Amino acid sequence: METNNQKEPENADSEKPTEPSPSASEELSSKAVAAYEWWDNLATFHPNDPLWLGGVKILVRVIGILVLLALSPLIILGFMFAFLAVA
């Protein structure tokens, strides 16, 4: 019977490359992508959806547009303050 006399190095785990933890911007980006995909999936029309569900999805899209329109003046104001603070 043959035996394997080779030993693995004691620090074998430390030699393996570890993936760096994601930065704050990558985490924020992944959360934004996940939120967009959830919203898009919620409002996407599918051929097997009943008629009433299509109406609800149209309402969801209208609410999303209204929310974005309501936020846009605040975002523009925030950009203006940011540019004033930097200048």
UniProtKB/TrEMBL annotation:
| Residue intervals passing through the bilayer | 58-86
| Keywords from the named record | Membrane, Transmembrane, Transmembrane helix
Chain intervals with Basic and acidic residues compositional bias: 1-18
Q: Which domain of life is it from?
A: Bacteria
Annotated segments matching region Disordered:
1-28
- State the protein's name: Uncharacterized protein
